[in-house]
Amino acid sequence: MGTTQLETVPEPKYWHLKTVLAEALDSEFAVGQILPNERELAARYGVARATLRQALEQLEFEGRLQRRRGVGTTVAPPRVGVDVAPVEDSWPGAPGDAWQTDGCEEVSPPARVARLLDASTTEPVSAVRRTRRAHGQTVATELLYVPCAATPGISGSGAARGHAALRALHHLELEGQERSVELGSARADDARQLDRLPGAPVLVVTTRYLSGGATMAVAVSTYRADTCRLTFGDTGAVELLAS
Amino acid sequence: MGTTQLETVPEPKYWHLKTVLAEALDSEFAVGQILPNERELAARYGVARATLRQALEQLEFEGRLQRRRGVGTTVAPPRVGVDVAPVEDSWPGAPGDAWQTDGCEEVSPPARVARLLDASTTEPVSAVRRTRRAHGQTVATELLYVPCAATPGISGSGAARGHAALRALHHLELEGQERSVELGSARADDARQLDRLPGAPVLVVTTRYLSGGATMAVAVSTYRADTCRLTFGDTGAVELLAS
DNA sequence: GAGTGGTCTAGACCACTCC
DNA sequence: GAGTGGTCTAGACCACTCG
After folding, report:
1. Is any atom of nucleic acid chain C found less than 7 Å from the CB of residue A48?
2. Which residue among A4, A120, A194, B136 has the highest number of C-beta atoms inside a 10 angstrom radius?
3. Domain positions in chain B
4. B176 near B156, Cβ under 8 Å?
5. Which among A113-117, A155-159, B117-121 has the top mean pLDDT?
6. How far apart are the C-alpha atoms of A213 and A190, rounded to whole Å?
7. A183 contact B CB<8A
8. Euclidean distance between CA atoms A197 and A226, whole angstroms
9. B80-240, what's its fold?
10. Residues from chain A contacting residue B233 (CB–CB below 8 Å)
11. A201 and A183 in contact (C-beta within 8 Å)?
């Protein structure tokens, strides 16, 4: 007995559904518009709610949708371009950088940071909490680690200590930065500040600031992956083009 | 009647489970080791399999686990650092770059690429397919778009055409690059090449190559987000430090 | 063919937002 | 209090890998 279908391609339902929804978003919905609720969408497409949610999750990861509990699912605007290194070759907290200092306390650095600082986890560091806002929303949180040994005379806590730690860095000559980007999921405290649920996808940018052949500071910045596109302004001609 | 618990913090089960598992990974498992299967883990922790899977998914996004159908769940090695711009300020395909040219065909550029090229979607471009390998696995796929108008005399298809298109670029003076990174989910074809399932999280790097005040090429590179940490080698002193 | 992770269902209840 | 998305369950079947 022969079968009519050759080379069956069992595409998962949620994957197909995602494609269908993506097309609907392009043609039938405007940015900011609210979609029908999940129970109705599931019924309309004849799938279980869990399956529909799997499709919506994909679209959310791609920055096409935004879901808010108690409110609904809306069509997301295009991702915001956020320049990761707006001021070329400068210390954090230099005039013109996009961050706001929220606080600072003395802690033992997490293992990964200690490794980047070429220090042990027992050596105390100042951990400066900063946030970055753009287009009316908090797009990133940051923990900036500065060894206490490099900033003599620093004490106390709060934003004042944070500013002092940053000022201390500015007296040094910045020789270079080293940066990496990876996928992460938001810890509970970061999630709260970013107005997301814990576990939301984030882009983690780790920056190492070098001076005198050593690492003088390490910044771990956590950007909302759903709304942000990280940009890296680069060599000369770019600004020419932009102007 | 009084209750013993003050300030109930209804932490989701999967979130708590994720934390517990993460600690177990640190203390009881070695890299590459295979975990008990999902049904057993779910039973062991007294949750439904779906809930356990939600926790595992989080850990996979953080690069801690690797799951393969038909095989099992293994403890992932630390993420591989992949330099996004290994050769500073050079065209793609220059000697020493990390990519392999797989093929090339003439297409109409997708809308987003056309916009970056300051061109219309009807103007034909060469789409060069490239892949990048590191540590024995394919870590990225790329589509590099070069306007046919900028590379006169190019024709045919396949790797030969790709090499020709790249060579044509090398005759121009590169004035700058502009780069962005964002989260995406793997399309079916990319997923196959990256040995992942469709929808797997990826980091999408878009690079604009500038020459003569115009955009002469656009590369859209898709990196595995689970195994890769993108690094951006930077200003001078870094190499000094590495040596 | 046995065992794994991946998909899907139908239903319940919870946390949150807004009226 | 009504309506939304978020969590969780118990179970079924499928696609894949490997011996």
Report:
1. yes
2. A194
3. 5-75, 80-240
4. no
5. A113-117
6. 32
7. yes
8. 12
9. Chorismate lyase (3.40.1410)
10. 178
11. yes
Q: Determine the distance in angstroms separating the CA of A182 from the nearest CA of chain B, rounded to an integer.
A: 5
Q: Cβ(A147)–Cβ(A108) under 8 Å? A: no
With contacts defined as CB-CB under 8 Å, which chain A residues touch B234? 176-179
User: Measured between beta carbons, which residues in chain B are less than 8 angstroms from residue A233?
Assistant: 178
Closest CA to B77 of B23, B28, B135, B21: B135
Kindly list the distances between the CA atom of residue A162 and the CA atoms of A103, A167, A209, B108, B191, in Å, as whole numbers in the listed order: 6, 9, 17, 52, 44
B23: its two tokens: 């600690």
Cα A153 to the center of its chain, rounded Å: 33
CA distance B17 to B21: 6
Return d(Cα A73, Cα A57) in angstroms, integer.
11
Q: Rounded mean pLDDT of A204-225? A: 94
pLDDT at B238: 39
How far: A45 CA to C12 C1' (Å)? Answer: 22
Contact A91, A209 (CB under 8 A): yes
Ranges of beta strands (E only) in chain A are: 65-68, 72-75, 80-83, 99-107, 125-134, 137-147, 176-185, 201-211, 214-224, 228-232
Nucleotides of chain D touched by protein CB (<7 A) = 2-12, 14-18
For B89, nearest residue in chain A (alpha carbons):
A235
In this complex, the nucleotide whose C1' atom is nearest to the CA atom of residue A197 is D6
Contact by Cβ (8 Å): A92, A100: no
Give the separation between CA B205 and CA B61, rounded to whole angstroms: 18
Claim: this prediction has a pTM higher than 0.85: yes
Angle at B22 between CA B18 and CA B26, to 5 degrees: 170
Neighbours of A23 (CB within 10 A): 10
List, as ranges, residues 124-143 from A with C-beta within 8 Å of B: none
Q: How many Å apart are CA A156 and CA A140, to the nearest integer? A: 25
Task: Using the structure, give the distance in angstroms from the CA atom of B197 to the C1' atom of D16, rounded to a whole number.
Answer: 12
The C-alpha R_g of chain B, in whole angstroms, comes to 23
Query: Which residue numbers in chain B have pLDDT < 70?
Result: 1-9, 86-88, 234-243
